[in-house]
Amino acid sequence: VQLVESGGGLVQPGGSLTLSCATSGFNFADYAIGWFRQAPGKEREGVSCFGNRDNSTYYTDSAKVRFSASSDSAKNTAYLQLRRLRLEDTAVYYCAALPSFFQCFDLASGRGEWGTIYWGQGTQVSVST
After folding, report:
1. Torsion over CA: 8, 9, 14, 18 (sign)
2. Overall average pLDDT of the 76-93 stretch
3. What is the pLDDT of residues 35-76, one digit of tens each?
4. Distance CA 80, CA 56 (A)
5. How many C-beta atoms surround the C-beta of residue 13 within 10 A?
6. Is residue 4 classed exposed, middle or buried when 0-12, 13-18 and 19+ CB atoms within 10 A define those classes?
7. Is the backbone of residue 75 left (phi > 0), alpha (psi -120 to 50) or beta?
8. Using CA atoms, how far apart are residues 119 and 94, in angstroms rounded to an integer?
9. What is the DSSP string of 54-123?
10. Which of 9, 34, 47, 114 has its CA 20 to 30 A from that of 123?
């Protein structure tokens, strides 16, 4: 199983980025893809979940309105569009593949971690003037 994030970079406040998560080694269409981030000195936090089976979505409060998750099952790739970026969005962003949308929801919302999770290596997003 492989998940490879890309698309991070340095952007000014108010800017946009689109992160990609290219996957292989599992049945992408049956999984949920979660996006998470970890800022320096802080714990990992959830950003969003996207269920590939039925296009279910979940966004944490920090991601609502400004971020948008999607996927392309033909390419086995998930995306996270970041808009109106703020200084506090600076973090390493990770994608994860989970067999259940509810599993992703529990992890992203802080309710708990359970079951199999496949992680990518992360991509750095830096928002700075």
Report:
1. negative
2. 98
3. 999 999 999 999 999 999 999 999 999 899 999 999 999 999
4. 14
5. 13
6. middle
7. alpha
8. 7
9. T--EEE-TTTTTTEEEEEETTTTEEEEEE-S--GGG-EEEEEEEES-HHHHHHHHHTS---S--EE---E
10. 114
Query: How confident is the model at residue 62, as a pLDDT?
Result: 87
CA 32 to chain CA centroid, Å, is 10
Decide: 58 and 104 in contact? Cβ < 8 Å.
Answer: yes
Q: Which amino acid is at 20?
A: S
Residues 63-72: contacts with CB within 8 Å, 24+ apart? 63/35, 67/35, 69/33, 69/35, 71/28, 71/33
For the chain, give the number of residues.
Answer: 129
In the three-class reduction of DSSP (H, G, I as helix; E, B as strand; rest coil), residue 29 is classed as helix
Task: Give 84's contacts (C-beta < 8 A, 6+ positions apart).
Answer: 14, 16, 66
Look up residue 35 and give its amino acid: W
Residue 102's region, left for phi above 0, alpha for psi from -120 to 50, else beta, is alpha
